[in-house]
Amino acid sequence: MTVKIISTTPFTDQKPGTSGLRKKVTVFAQDHYAENFIQSTFDSLENFQGKTLVLGGDGRYLNRKVIQSVIKIAAANGFGRILVGKGGITSTPAASNLIRQNKAFGGIILSASHNAGGPQGDFGIKFNISNGGPAPEKLTEAIFEHSKTITQYKIADCADIDIDTLGTHQIGDTVVEIIDPVKDYAALMEGLFDFAAIRNLLQSGFTMRFDAMHAVTGPYATEIFEKRLGAKAGSVFNAVPLEDFGGHHPDPNIVYAHELYEELMSDHAPDFGAASDGDGDRNLIIGKGMYIAPSDSLAVLAANAHLAPAYSKGIAGIARSMPTSCAADRVAEKLKIGMHETPTGWKFFGNLLDTGLVTICGEESAGTGSDHVREKDGLWAVLLWLNILAVRKQSVAEIMHEHWQTYGRNYYSRHDYEEVASDGANALMDALRAKLPALKGTAVQGMVVEAADDFAYHDPVDHSISKHQGIRILFEGGSRLVVRLSGTGTAGATIRIYLERYEADSSKHDLETQSALTSQIAAAAELTEITRYTGREKPSVIT
């Protein structure tokens, strides 16, 4: 193998966010941009020579080109074995499984998750460590520091690898294996859930629809739902992964998966609907005539996990990101298990999962998972719902209403203000922080502030501290406001405002969500002064 040393100059904007480096395709398409970040990642690692690297992505535009660069740079830097998903396509949870199953040193996942794709869309690169989870902050900070001083990268001088045919290739001392990641992932799911019970459910006349959104889960969903579980052919739609996701936004919410939503709300609705996102780690759950909010889904899955074989002995604990509603907290309290509140970003769940403190984790942004991998997992959540439905023999709506009767209902919504000017967004956050010390005991829109802070997380395992993770304003009676800047966008800033109201009275469990949150919405407008700082009169997206 001939190794070329390519001279380069640093880029100043390669700071990873909550899930790696995400930028517009036009940014990644610059000469040396992707290569710089890949080399900076390897420069931040130690003792990987001769070891295994897992490599895959969600199939979006640039995926195939950057796959080749990663293969060649990884070989030049001394990795002994590179496992590549066929076609360069591997879902994020499947990649996590491959890392763990093969005891790999780590993996590189090429994805911008739920962000739009195509030549004018987004692209992303992130590194996952040996437990299968996203790199911790200490490592992402080191990568950023290397990226600011890089002067060269190493790359193998060889032809591109055929990534569309299963088989083995040799680049010097490095073995490159093109593998089928669907097979291993499907086998993992079959070991977790009662496939026989789900198969019986689907053969009993129960109908389902799964929108793969022309993203990575199409082949996985077809294999699992239609081939292994016997769902009717065509139950999985938009099943072929496309570089631009068919021109759509691969975010599984009722705005972007409106076709599925409208079908489930129609007179001819199937019994169950679900979707996943660009890289397969998020999920959308809809019952016949009933949308299930991600925070509610997390709570229901945690309360009923014991109905699936893998969790039949119960779960050790639950973790949720701080902005996620407190619905799961009420489940943990009733089950007498641990409840952990972490910053946004799946990487914060890793230590809790690795030490057995928790079994199930979730984020309000439609990510749910368990200790089977170290990423959120869209298809896992769908399969657990199906397992619960198969055992309880009730509809989604019946299960949800029984849950609220038992635990009360947490009305919850997220208002996103996307691509606002960064200066205005930062000024808003600074001004809100300055108000925090004086808020306790004051009344806002008829609600009394019980506590207010800028959330800091103290990891109970490694004792690291992560500050400035979002502003929390807690009201007496269980209402909350959370305000934070997102780390997953690629242009400007995204302000996310999370609104929550707890309602114990079962006669008030069927209110329209935005109406139920009228006071919280007004309080958010008053406290943040968002129109003043952003010029926006209303959110870009409400979920």
UniProtKB/TrEMBL annotation:
Domain Alpha-D-phosphohexomutase alpha/beta/alpha span(s) in chain numbering: 14-153, 185-286, 295-407
Source taxon at top rank: Bacteria
EC number: 5.4.2.2
Alphabetized Pfam families for the sequence: PGM1_C_vert_fung, PGM_PMM_I, PGM_PMM_II, PGM_PMM_III
Cofactor(s) in the UniProt record: Mg(2+)
Catalytic reaction list: alpha-D-glucose 1-phosphate = alpha-D-glucose 6-phosphate
InterPro entries: A-D-PHexomutase_a/b/a-I, A-D-PHexomutase_a/b/a-I/II/III, A-D-PHexomutase_a/b/a-II, A-D-PHexomutase_a/b/a-III, A-D-PHexomutase_C_sf, Alpha-D-phosphohexomutase_SF, PGM
Alphabetical keyword list: Isomerase, Magnesium, Metal-binding, Phosphoprotein
Residues making up the signal peptide according to the UniProt record: none
Keyword Metal-binding: yes
GO molecular function ontology, one term from the record: phosphoglucomutase activity
Assigned protein family: Belongs to the phosphohexose mutase family.
Xref: PANTHER family: PHOSPHOGLUCOMUTASE (PTHR22573:SF2), PHOSPHOHEXOMUTASE FAMILY MEMBER (PTHR22573)
Name this polypeptide is given: phosphoglucomutase (alpha-D-glucose-1,6-bisphosphate-dependent)
Organism name: Pseudochrobactrum kiredjianiae
Species lineage: Bacteria, Pseudomonadati, Pseudomonadota, Alphaproteobacteria, Hyphomicrobiales
